[in-house]
Amino acid sequence: MTQSSNETWTVTIVVPEDSSLEEAGETYDLEVGADETILAAARSAGVWLPADCQQGWCTTCAARLVDGDVANPNARRYYDEDDEAGYILPCTAKPRTDTTVVVDQYDDFLEFRAANDRPPGNSKLDS
Amino acid sequence: MSDEKEHGSGSVAPGDTSKRVGAEVIRERGVDPEELREKLIDAIGAEFTTYYYYTNLRMHLAGEEDYKEITEDARLEDRAHFELVVPRIYELEGSLPNDIRDFADRASCPDAEVPTPMDDSGGFDTSDLAVEDILEVLLEAERCAIRTWSEICDMTRGADPRTYDMAQRILNEEMDHEAWFIELLSKERDDEINPAGHFARGEPGDAPYSTNNRFNDSA
């Protein structure tokens, strides 16, 4: 697929009902540029998603991709099994199609990383 | 103590040493002190690993004495940040991980490795190592730290003035560091003048915000 920097995709952000975020239960449709991260687009639109490093390392922003496709080339710590299980890191993920993501998945993602013996899973859960 | 006069102690019973009012007052204000403590461990994990990695980055700025000086300031100040916050973690009834590998794994920022592969003899392959690449690693490490301490300021604002005070002091210095490396990388890579607008530290690693009113002698 060819990409141009002015191409945009509709990213649907689903905040689960049981999320501790103020936006729990809400769904947002955002237009996100192909060169823009989902996190940056959400925060610019006033949807304050959790994040920390914004370099694809700490996993605070972890989300589940339920539809569509993203590119994650700049994530500093992202594994094949994350991709296969449908986890993304919105701080570095850029849409490549119209996409739907379920955000605020940090706790589940830590369990997943721990089960796969990948950091920071066990180092966080064993503390 | 008079039997008629009860000791005012909120939810912590008089003489109860199993709880800390210093933590409970934070909880009363809506912040989970255990969650905060764990976030602090992640944050100072990043300060500690950065201190380590900056040592190596500094060494590989061979011949670039001005860059080495600035990197040394940032290196020592990141260590000062680690030492500033360690006591707070114990106050909040936490501790450093026993295994340093766990500490590094949970650090909230990426490893700031020398941007070059290892050679066949196990040393760094420096044949294509460029100064601008090292400066970019330093810059991005500082940017991560700014984001981390901003999150902690957000988390503690209006609820935990003690941690907030530490975090905002550290944040001040991380913002200094970012400005330094923007200036150096702009000049080195793009030949652009992009001043940080700062004067030199009084001494290497002076940490004027995080140690100008010391919480303890080691910080």
UniProtKB/TrEMBL annotation, chain A:
InterPro entries: 2Fe-2S_ferredoxin-like_sf (IPR036010), 2Fe-2S_ferredoxin-type (IPR001041), 2Fe2S_fd_BS (IPR006058), Beta-grasp_dom_sf (IPR012675). This is Ferredoxin. It comes from Halorientalis persicus. Keywords: 2Fe-2S, Electron transport, Iron, Iron-sulfur, Metal-binding, Transport. SUPFAM superfamilies: 2Fe-2S ferredoxin-like (SSF54292). One of its GO terms (molecular function) is 2 iron, 2 sulfur cluster binding. Residues 9-107 form the 2Fe-2S ferredoxin-type domain. Its cofactor is [2Fe-2S] cluster. Pfam families: Fer2. Belongs to the 2Fe2S plant-type ferredoxin family.
UniProtKB/TrEMBL annotation, chain B:
The keyword Iron applies. It holds the Pfam family Ferritin. GO terms for cellular component: cytosol. It comes from the Archaea. Residues 1-23, 193-219 are annotated as: Disordered. Residues 39-187 form the Ferritin/DPS domain. Keywords: Iron, Iron storage. Gene3D superfamilies: 1.20.1260.10. GO terms for molecular function: ferric iron binding; ferroxidase activity; heme binding. The keyword Secreted does not apply. Residues 209-219 have a biased composition (Polar residues). GO terms for biological process: intracellular iron ion homeostasis. This is Protein distantly related to ferritins. It comes from Halorientalis regularis. The lineage of its organism: Archaea, Methanobacteriati, Methanobacteriota, Stenosarchaea group, Halobacteria.
